[in-house]
Design goal:
The protein has a seven-stranded mixed β-sheet, with helices on both faces. It starts with 12 loop residues before the first helix and ends in a 5-residue tail after the last strand. It has about 260 residues and is α/β, with parallel strands linked by helices. Helix 3 links the parallel strand 1 and strand 2. The protein has a domain of about 170 residues: Rossmann fold (3-Layer(aba) Sandwich), CATH 3.40.50.150. The chain has ten helices and seven strands.
């Protein structure tokens, strides 16, 4: 993983768990529709964080399929483990994308949700190819803030003016998966979604960004919240909710035999 990406979200784990969005059901169906769980009944969510996507996978996949979240940050894993419901078949393990805690060829799908931009992706693709069974699927999903949305633009301005510098660029996952050894049949999916947020959730969503950590340190938590609550009040609709827009994106490819 990139530099301190293993621990950078520990400081915002509570806000992350409370405010980050679920992924659209249609995107989950598209990703999981490629899973061929005939023999290897294990699906892995890499960089599982507080378990948002992992829990959605559990709901979407057949009960017989084991779902494992792999996450290096202890605070994020604790948030995820604390949300496991009684009888829910979920397992969270310490590990990284570049060294998955799994044996060769034991899983039918490897997923990463809004996490792969932090990975050493060449190493991640090699690890995914190692642990996947033949014809297993790799799936990457993320969401991109719609900068034409007023609430998104305000959040971006807050992070730019008070937070840390942007430390990554959005990868071209289609090109990277197409070039990754051992994978083929690359496909992509896109879906625009507008969320309606209560002011408190808007504040926590902005503060869940890794780039907000310097802002909280510079301004103090209360001042940062005050600024964002003021922004939310200005942007809220008559019903008090703040529209916040994303484009959700999905990318998938299938494990194929490498050329001799």
């Amino acid at each position: 993983m990139v530099a301190d990406s293993k621990t950078r979200f520990n400081a915002v784990a509570d806000d992350y768990a409370a405010a980050r969005p679920n992924y659209p059901p249609a995107l989950l169906r598209w990703l999981c529709g490629a899973v061929r769980a005939e023999e290897k009944q294990v699906v892995v969510d890499v960089g599982s964080g507080t378990g948002i996507f992992t829990r959605q996978l559990r709901q979407e996949l057949a009960p017989a399929i084991a779902v494992i979240g792999v996450e290096p940050a202890a605070d994020m894993r604790a948030q995820a483990s604390g949300r496991i419901l009684a009888g829910e078949k979920l397992d969270y393990r310490e590990g990284t994308a570049e060294a998955l805690p799994l044996q060769d060829g034991v899983v039918c799908a490897v997923f990463a949700a809004t996490a792969a931009h932090w990975f050493d992706r060449l190493a991640f693709f090699a690890e995914a190819a190692r642990v996947l069974a033949p014809s297993g699927v790799i799936g990457i999903t993320d969401y991109v803030r719609d900068e034409t949305n007023a609430a998104v633009a305000a959040a971006t301005a807050f992070l730019r003016d008070h937070g840390g510098p942007r430390v990554y660029e959005r990868p071209d996952y289609v090109a990277e998966l197409a070039a990754a050894p051992g994978f083929g049949e690359t496909e992509a999916y896109r879906e625009h979604a507008a969320l309606l947020l209560e002011p408190e959730r808007y504040v926590r969503l902005v503060l869940s960004s890794s780039h907000a950590v310097p802002a909280i340190a510079a301004l103090g938590a209360e001042k940062a919240r005050e600024i964002l609550l003021g922004t939310a009040a200005e942007l809220a609709r008559a019903d008090g909710l703040v529209p916040y827009a994303y484009e959700f994106r999905g990318f998938r490819a299938r494990r194929v035999a490498s050329a001799a």
